[in-house]
Structures are given as C-alpha cells and as structure tokens.
Amino acid sequence: MANTRLQSLEDFLAKDVPNVKYATPSSPQYAEWRHIYIQSNKTTPLMIVRPQTADDVAKLVKYIVKNGLEFTIRGGGHDMMGRSQAQDAVTIDMRDIRYVKISEGKRTATIGAGINMIQLQEELDKEKLATTVGNVGHVGYTGWAIYGGYGFFNNNFGLGVDNIVGAKVVDSGGSVLDTDEHPDLLKGIRGAGGAFGVIVELRIKTYHVESILAGWVFFECQDVGSVFDNMCRNFSQLLEEDFPNEIGVSLMTTTGPMGRMCGVSFVSSFEDEEKARPWLAKIEKLGTCVMNTVETTTPLKYLHAQSAFGFNSAYGTCRTANLLSLSKVAGKLGDIAESLPAFSGPALVIHMIRGPSTDVCNSSVFANRRPHFLVELIGTSDEESQAQDTVKWAHISRSTLQHADPDNSLPGTYVSLDMSGELTYENLFGTNLPTYKDLKVKYDPKNVFMQPFSLIKI
C-alpha cells in the first residue's frame, strides 16, 4: 500500500510540480533531510518534499488532502515533541522557502516561512534592524512565533505573536489566503498558528537596533540548590524596583564541560547602553559572580553565541510551567536545580515575561497575558541511554511546581515546548476559545490541519 501511495505521489510531483525537491527512504539525501533535533522520534516519513514557492505548497496540499495522505509541516525541525514528522506521513519541509524583503520604511519585513532566526537576523543586521526572536538561532522563526514566541526582546518589543502583522496561508482546498483580505484569520494565526492552514509567508515588525549590551553573568554554584534558590529570591526583589522593559533576563542552571553552571543571560536593547549598566551591576549581585561575558555586540552575534550552547540533536523532551511568582517557590526551584541529572544536556531555564508581552490583546488568541515566568525543564541528553533519566526529572519537576502552590501557576502552558496530550483547549486559549472554534469551523472545518493540537483534550 505504501509503495502504491509513494509511486502515485512521485508521478504527481514529476507532472504537476517538477521544481519541488523530494526524498524517499531510499534516496541518498533522505537521512540528512529527515534529521530533526529530537532524535527520540524514530519515525520514517513516506516522503520528504521541499516546495520552492507558495504555489508549490498549494498544489501539494490539494493533492495530499484529495488522496487522504497523512502529512506534517516541518520548519526548523526543533519541535521538542518531534511533531514535525510522523510514520508513513508526507513531510512538507518548508526550509527552501526562505527570503527577507524589508519594507521601504524599514518598519516591517516580509519573510518566507521556512527561514530560521539566524538567517532572518543576518538580513536584518545589514540594515541595523532587529525583531523579537528566540534564544536559539537555528530554530525556525515561523513555528516559534505563531504559538507565542518567547525570547530576549519580549519585554521591549512583545511576543512573537504580537510582531506578526500579516501572513499568507494555504488552506485545505489549495487556495492561498492573505490575511489582508481575511483579517480574522490573522487573529487566529497569532497563537493557534498552523491550525488553519500551511503558513507560507509572514509579515513582521522590525526595529532599529544598531547594537545591544548582552552576554552571561555566571555565579559560583558549589551548593547549586542554595545558589539557585537565592538567585530566584534576589531577582524577585530586584523586579520590585522599576525594572526596565528594555532589559531581558533569563535564569539558568545546567551542566557544562567545566561542571555545574548557574547564570543569568542579560540582554539590553537600550539605545544608550549606559542606562543598562547600573542594572547589570545589580544582576552581578544575585550571587557570587565568577564571570561576566556581557559586552557590546549585535543581535546576530549574540544569536550565534547563544546557539553555540547545547547540541545539534538530542534525546528526550521538555516540560514547562508558567509561574506568577518565583519567590513563592524559590525553595522548590532550588531543589529542582539540585536534582538536575549530573551530565550534559538537561537544564532549568526561567524566562521573564513583562512589558508589552503582557498587554491585554484582542488581536490574538494567545492566552497567557499576565506577567509571569516561563520555566523550561529541558529533559534532554546527547546520549540515548541517559534520556530516560532526564525525561523523568522534567516530569517530576513540573509536577513539583504545579503542586507546590496551585494558585501560583497559570492554567495554560507553552505548546511549543510541552506535551500537547496533557493540555485542554480551555487552558490553552482561555477566553479566546470561542474565537478559535469559530475560525476553525470557518477555515478548516474538516480539521485537516490538526498539528500540534491533535492530542489536546477537547
């Protein structure tokens, strides 16, 4: 049966979309194209197709839907659940649709949906521009932005969803829809992403940023549990001051080549970096500072530096928790840091969400708009034999945070980094759920585009 489907698909590609590159399991490039970040996903897609244009995507979707084939959409391939490919499904690999067209006024950019963050920032850097991005440059921009988009510019420029001003989407009938003509669809894309079709192009906000003051501050962490506990408490006290939105901060502990590390990433988008230095001095006092790498740099150079952390691939997964307060569970976070498996890979990372990212927004279905902290419990390793321990740590740690103080946890989570099978539509979309349902009925009534929500409880 699979051979028949494969041959029919190859015949269609040769006749109707000859410019589309593709690979089957017997192709020499198949293993390279199939490679994704989470290696725990060992599925074998029926075929990997790499469209070159929006029209290619439209023809592919129309054929796939008509013939009842299963399919997934792959951007950067960094989904922590490995949802960008599935057994015997067609992978629509968007990575060849990558371009950046900066508007005349340099306030927006039109980008191909397959571009990753480093590729995007390379073009923006040439014009002394930036946009809100994540912390790992090889992650696909579109998949990151459409489901929330947490990163180091959030507190100044907003979440990824808030920086999307337009899009082109291929629906299940193979039509290319533009949100300029379907403005209600734009609201859905901002938070529910690809639930209505294949996004082939985004229009995003850009900002004048010539340089940033950015890097890491590392602390002595021989007693890692106590150190991380104190970091959380001291940072909570610091936030009670008039902490500026121009500064993005993340707290982290992991195990590196030199052993356990505890540190804070610091990114300032102040035009006058001297305004940031007093705050940097306060960050240095969150613990006993042993190293400070913060320097004047560019968003692109910082993205490259950030991307040097971690592996090209890993085994395991990630869990997340959204907390309203760090100080209320600082002791638990210290215990979680102490229990971190003592090998490279697993990490505890805490992101701060404030400023415009928390503004009440009627133009998106993204629900988590209260000031909060996104806790990443990265349960991964580059060794498959260690993955079970790291995943167990992540699960236990998330449960610990949820039960430590239920009133301190937001009901939703971050679908890009967590297990959709434990979510409900209610806690994902909150009061925006009726809007999501209406848009789903209007634009995808047969639920053709079910990822990444196929496992979410209704």
TrEMBL record:
Identify the Pfam families for this entry.
Answer: FAD_binding_4 (PF01565)
Annotated GO MF terms: FAD binding; oxidoreductase activity
Write down the InterPro entries for this protein, in alphabetical order.
FAD-bd_PCMH, FAD-bd_PCMH-like_sf, FAD-bd_PCMH_sub1, FAD-bd_PCMH_sub2, FAD-linked_Oxidoreductase, Oxid_FAD_bind_N
Q: Does the keyword Oxidoreductase apply?
A: yes
| Keyword flag Oxidoreductase | yes
Which residue ranges does the record assign to the FAD-binding PCMH-type domain? 41-209
Keyword list, A-Z: FAD, Flavoprotein, Oxidoreductase
Q: Which family does it belong to?
A: Belongs to the oxygen-dependent FAD-linked oxidoreductase family.
From the Swiss-Prot or TrEMBL record, give the protein name. Answer: FAD-binding protein
Phylogenetic lineage: Eukaryota, Fungi, Dikarya, Ascomycota, Pezizomycotina
